[in-house]
Design goal:
The chain is α+β, with helices and mostly antiparallel strands and 355 residues long. Helices cover 46% and strands 24% of the residues. Bound molecules: adenosine-5'-diphosphate. The site of adenosine-5'-diphosphate (ADP) has 23 residues, from helix 8 and helix 10.
Length: 355
């Protein structure tokens, strides 16, 4: 039985006023927003959810599309459904709603509304992700195919063959890296931690992440230093946190000029550990500082591609932080440099936990 059928059951044998009151009482239990309109399209009853959504104004429906749906249900004498955007006023957030209008009696129509904003947002994010992935994968794949063709026709020229083969290798590596990151990201987004959770020393993870980046720093003539306090324990997915710290350090190096410095630190503030990665590199414009955590977003796509970036690194850091009840933030000025701070809740011994 759907909500409208349920309401129909409730009101079948009652008089219209009583029926409307009963129908609304029924909707309150279901938490569905519901509005009942009489033959002159005046609202004679509404559920508290409908009231809080602002669906009714001066006893009329506050939205023309919703009124049109009611008109259609009346005209055709059958239930009508639609999905649409609804905004109470300019200041209110835009909601994506699913609406269904059904005749309750010869005069009364009930309009049932469900808020689908979150479901729609997730659907859009998924759609964008797939679109972006296809686009990102196409670039190295077509490069590989072109390079393979070039190789075929340059077999007599050893120099050219060598050059194309090495480019081919670079593109294949890029493609592999991209696929790995996509897999990592989907794993993190599925909230896939817990099975591998353990207590670990954050200082050790930082030391390893610095170590893993020493070669890159050396190649780019960037001085990489770190200064951490001991005995900072975290409970969670060690691998994931390690990946996040590595990503931050790698970015700090690749978005710096040669002969500059990158510093990694670890401090404790209340119940949180703070890992900071500071560079004096190119910096990030203030209006883009929120967007860099989105998947595939890059301030300068050509520079990022040149350095082998995928646009997924910070998105991985953000999700890794969130999965652990932490967060990542950035302070940056163009031309001066950036500091990324990864904040993670400290592991509490059983006797330190609140009752
Ligand atoms: P990418 O693989 O392109 O580096 P990220 O998700 O790691 O992707 O970063 C997104 C974008 O944020 C980068 O393309 C770059 O424009 C910017 N960015 C990240 N870290 C830094 C940094 N330390 N300094 C300047 N820009 C940065």
């Amino acid at each position: 039985m759907n909500n409208a059928d349920g309401v129909n059951e409730v009101v079948k044998s009652s008089n219209p006023k009583k029926a409307a009151a009963q129908a609304v009482a029924f909707l309150e239990v279901l938490e569905t927003a519901g509005v009942i309109l009489n033959a002159s399209n005046e609202v004679i009853s509404q559920s508290s959810k409908a009231e809080s959504m602002g669906l009714v104004e001066y006893e009329k429906l506050a939205n023309d599309e919703l009124q049109e749906l009611v008109n259609q249900a009346r005209a055709e004498k059958k239930p009508k459904s639609s999905e649409l955007y609804f905004q109470k006023n300019f200041k209110a957030p835009r909601q994506y709603i699913s609406a269904r209008a059904t005749m309750l009696s010869d005069d009364l129509v009930i309009l049932l509304i469900e808020d689908k904003t979150e479901a729609k947002r997730l659907e859009d994010v998924r759609y964008d992700f797939v679109e972006n992935i296809s686009h990102e994968l196409k670039t190295p794949i077509s490069a590989i195919s072109l390079l393979a063709e070039a190789l075929q026709v340059s077999l007599d020229d050893a120099e050219q063959t060598k050059k194309f083969a090495s480019n081919l290798q670079r593109e294949a590596k890029r493609l592999g890296g991209l696929v790995n990151r996509i897999i990592e990201l989907s794993r993190i987004q599925a909230g896939d931690i817990g099975g591998v959770a353990s207590v670990f020393q954050l200082g050790d993870v930082i030391a390893e992440a610095v170590d893993a980046n020493l070669f890159l720093a050396d190649r780019r003539a960037v001085k990489l230093t770190f200064d951490v306090i001991p005995n900072v324990e975290i409970f969670g997915d060690r691998e994931l946190i390690s990946m996040a710290v590595k990503n931050l350090i790698e970015n700090a190096i690749v978005y710096s000029e040669s002969n500059s410095q990158v510093g990694v630190g670890l401090t404790v503030d209340d119940d949180f550990a703070e890992v900071s990665v500071t560079d004096n590199g190119i910096g990030i414009p203030v209006d883009q500082q929120e967007r860099i955590f989105e998947r595939f977003y890059r301030v300068d796509p050509s520079r990022s591609r040149e350095t082998g970036g995928t646009g997924l690194g910070l998105s991985i850091v953000k999700h890794a932080a969130q999965n652990h009840g932490g967060e990542v933030s950035v302070f940056s000025r163009v031309g001066l440099g950036s500091t990324f701070t990864l904040k993670l809740p400290l592991h509490k011994q059983p006797n330190e936990r609140p009752e």
